[in-house]
Amino acid sequence: MEGQQVVEKILDDAKAEAQIIIKEAEEKESAEQAKLSKQLQEYKKQTEILAQKAAKDEESHILAAARMEIAKEFLAEKRKILDEVFTQARKQLQNLPDDQYRNLITKLLLETVETGDEEVIVDKNEYRIDQQFIDQINQKLSSSEKANLRLSQDRADIEGGFILRRGKIKTNVSFDVLLAHARKELEIELAKDLFSE
Fold first, then answer.
1. Cβ(153)–Cβ(147) under 8 Å?
2. Residue 116 CB: number of other CB atoms within 10 A?
3. Which tens digits make up the pLDDT trace of 58-70?
4. 175 with 161: CB under 8 angstroms?
5. Strand partners, 189
6. For the structural domain made of 97-186, what CATH number should be given?
7. Quick one: 112 exposed, middle or buried, by C-beta within 10 A (0-12, 13-18, 19+)?
8. Whether this model's pTM surpasses 0.85
9. How far is CA 136 from the centre of its chain?
10. Domain definitions of the chain by residue range
């Protein structure tokens, strides 16, 4: 072969070899591009899932806060209603007809007396409970050997009900205390309503 032919042969072989290398490189690049594209799609999908989750979490947080705010407002309204109910209840208790008032006090005394030798302290303006009334209570207590109650000369600013005193021990059965106890129980129920949602 002549030199020219040898050169051409070498060039042709080099070109063929270059074509093979280029083809392999293109195939490799295409495979890498496909792999990268697939990874990009997966990252995009994961990003969308995370974004949706974050949005859902934020939405849940906002809804929970809104529910809590509504529950607080609802509780505040219930408390206003309770205030009114207990104000009315106090007035009704104080303005009971004499016989109903005495029946209520009789029931409360019979439930509260422990030893029967307590003093009964009443409101400074009380006129329905006197020693004669206390004597009637003592008659009802006589079967249980607790029959020595006395009306105290001391008066208290309790606006209804009474205080039993034996020495230094006092049991407050005033309407304010009874209503406060009832209210506390109702507020516990209201709190349960608030935090159960």
1. no
2. 16
3. 888 888 888 888 8
4. yes
5. none
6. 3.30.2320.30
7. middle
8. no
9. 47
10. 1-95, 97-186
